Amino acid sequence: MAARKKSASGRRYGKAASKSVKRAMHKRKTGTLKSGSGRKVTSRKQAIAIGLSEAREAGAKVPRKRSSTRKTTSSRKKSASR
Q: What is the pTM of this model?
């Protein structure tokens, strides 16, 4: 298993980020959390994503989003080399 690189402080997410996620999870439990389109959120993963997104906007310590371009670039290389 490859060793992960740790940040200097040891925490990947800040306390403000965990507060934001906690609030989003609580809203999901009560059924009042809404997505960007206005639909009710029932998914746990989506609630976490919304909490982290709000924390990012507020300037909390949250790692940036992973880009989804990794999959598409490898398929482009294969087709280009043929």
A: 0.65
pLDDT tens for 44-56 read 999 999 999 999 9
pLDDT tens column, 54-76: 999 898 888 888 887 766 555 56
Q: Which residue has the tokens 């009560």?
A: 30
Secondary structure in 3-state letters for the chain: CCCCCCCCCCCCCCHHHHHHHHHHHHHHHHCCCECCCCCECCCHHHHHHHHHHHHHHHCCCCCCCCCCHHHHHHHHHHHHHC
Torsion-angle region of residue 56: left (phi > 0), alpha (psi -120 to 50) or beta?
alpha
CA-to-CA distance for 74 and 31, rounded, in angstroms? Answer: 40
* 15 and 55 Cβ atoms separated by less than 8 Å: no
Which residues neighbour 23 within 8 Å (Cβ) at sequence distance 6 or greater? 51
